[in-house]
Amino acid sequence: MPSTVSLYAALARMAFRRQLAYRTANLAGLATNAFFGYLRSAAFIAAFAAAPAGSLAGYDTQTITTYTWITQSLIMVLSLWGWWDIELSIRTGDVVADLARPVSYLGSWLARDYGRAAYFVLFRGLPSLLIGQLTLGGGLRWPTDPMAWLAFASSLLVAIAISFAWRFLLNLSAFWTTDARGLGALANGLVLFLGGFVVPLRFFPTWLQPLLLALPFAAIIQVPSDIFVGRLQGLPVLYALLDQLAWAVALLALSQGCVALATRRISVQGG
């Protein structure tokens, strides 16, 4: 067991160091994040200025601008635009060697994704939030309670697992379709719109909110963002974390099942 944990930790470190090679690309991405974060927050500020009560769906101006910047900061941490390393390995045939290694295929990729995410927390997420703090007159609404920070960190860790499992499944679809990236583009669009990135899910019609909040997409974006801005507090935070954990377990189990099917497919075809 300790050796397995050490192996996964080594894979995570390798993924972290791999991202360090792309410092210039990260700076360009950070500039893009900041630009669109400013535009999005400015649009919300204008919309809230026109609201009679100065707030909508439980968000005031400072809360919604903070929500905007936290979602911007999580774009690369959660890889919201997608990621196609596995799909590429399937198309090239390298996946056969990956599956033959004496380590969990799913676990090795999950470890690498956590290493990648750790890099973007430090070099994209935190800088994006600091830029948001400096560009807004009143600054962002930061958590003031240590327990809120703990809840946010826990939520983000699970959200990364859910996001990974979703992307993993989309990549594995390359075993059965020649257009996995086309399918993935549509699927990732659903995550952005139904997960609370474009606008918080609380802005949707009241009758629709329970359905949207029950989907795994909300567990990727909406939940950690709402915890950060204080929209979720007390017992609702615990319920949200349990819901996230349930989705993580379910999607990772489904992912493992798909790996088993894919392995059988390769064996049947003699690959």
Q: What's the SSE pattern?
A: HHEEHHHHHHHHHH
The helix content is over 70%
Average pLDDT over all residues: 91
| Multimeric state | single chain
Main sheet summary: 2 strands, antiparallel
Terminal CA distance reads 31 Å
The SS-based structural class is mainly alpha
Instruction: Quickly count the helices.
Output: 12
Describe the structure.
The protein is mostly helical. It has one domain (2-269). It has helices at 2-20, 23-49, 61-73, 85-92, 95-100, 105-135, 146-172, 180-194, 209-214, 216-220, 222-229, 235-269, and strands at 55-56, 59-60. Strand 1 and strand 2 (59-60) form a beta hairpin. The two termini are 31 Å apart.
Layout: helices, strands, pairs:
Elements: H1 2-20, H2 23-49, E1 55-56, E2 59-60, H3 61-73, H4 85-92, H5 95-100, H6 105-135, H7 146-172, H8 180-194, H9 209-214, H10 216-220, H11 222-229, H12 235-269
Antiparallel strand pairs: 1-2
Helix pairs in contact: 1-6, 2-3, 2-6, 3-6, 3-11, 4-7, 6-7, 7-8, 7-11, 7-12
What labels would you give this structure?
271 residues; mainly alpha; two-stranded antiparallel sheet; 74% helix; 1% strand; globular; disordered C terminus
Describe the structure in brief:
By secondary structure, the protein is an all-alpha fold.
